[in-house]
Amino acid sequence: MSVSGYTLPVFACAAAIAALHWLRHGQAVTSVSVNLISPAEMAEISIEQVAGLSDNMALAITRSQPGDNLDLTKNTPIWAVVQWRRGDGEPVIIQGGEGVGKQLNADYQPAIYAYAHRLLQENLQRMLAADEKITVNIILPFGRSLAVRTSNPAFGVVEGLSLLGTSGISQPLSTPEQLTAFRIELEHKASQFETLVFCIGENGLDLARQLGINPEQMVKTANWLGPMLVAADVLGVKEILLFGYHGKLMKLAGGIFHTHHHLADGRREILAAHCALVGLNSQDIQSVFESPTAEAALKYLKALDTVTGSDWVNQVYTAIAQAIDTRSQAYIQSHSTRGAAATLCGSVLFDRDRQILIKSKIGCILMEKLC
Predict the structure, then answer these.
(1) Domain check: are 194 and 98 in the same one?
(2) Which of 21, 84, 115, 127 has a C-alpha 20 to 30 A away from that of 223?
């Protein structure tokens, strides 16, 4: 049995609570209680160190414990510096210090997303009197070095890690036990809705929510898209919107239904093949094929469109989206006992700036129903 831990925002919040406790009481604590909000439960988080830096400022340190999840942040220290503040504005101002990533598509703002903000705001505000204000600076000392081992740059986050997540619970996403947990969630939501949205990870869940899709219709799949599609069909789900980052979801266009890069990649081959199918010349196909990442290939096609006034991005990705739908439908059909009534699939792909890149024909129809 795998052990669940907590997501990075929970530890940042715990450190901030401990630092504020020092400012309030002049005492170090060895643990604090954090209201996770999602789920609605309390978590007891160990605090490694607390120190007063001045009468108005304190530092607390905790360490990430994501459970059995294969998470590179395991045991990494999280610092929170909390300082009393005077003046107008919000009671709690949250800042990202060293090691917290910056968002290229949001004027270099810290990569501290909605759940982390809500977690910090709600837990800290209940500790403040009506006229008190604080500034919280989150620091990840090893964030910059750890970030080079992540896909953060693919989503426009540089110089550190993101405080990303929609829940306080960190699940082991790469284990068979997690597939079981995903299926349980799928079964619950399939009993309520005929149309569901499959998101591989937190970026998809976050963007889908921003676009107005009901979170209760979203199902996280991690890399288990194939088994989850089959399970949805067995449960009688009528329609599935595959909503994901183009560099991951395009693997389905090549018939790859377990999308972890250790098992199969094929992205450059898929891109190059679809470039050839829509008539791109051989020299440009070669450049796409030699691109180090899917995002780099997309940039190349965008630059080509800008220079020549062509429409290659739309043509290539329209073809890929259609192939995703077709291959997903065939995959379900090959495992289905429902015959012609098998689950219908549509797709929506977004880029590293979290902008919608393309919607398949079925994807457009499903988005209109969902939003």
Answers:
(1) no
(2) 115
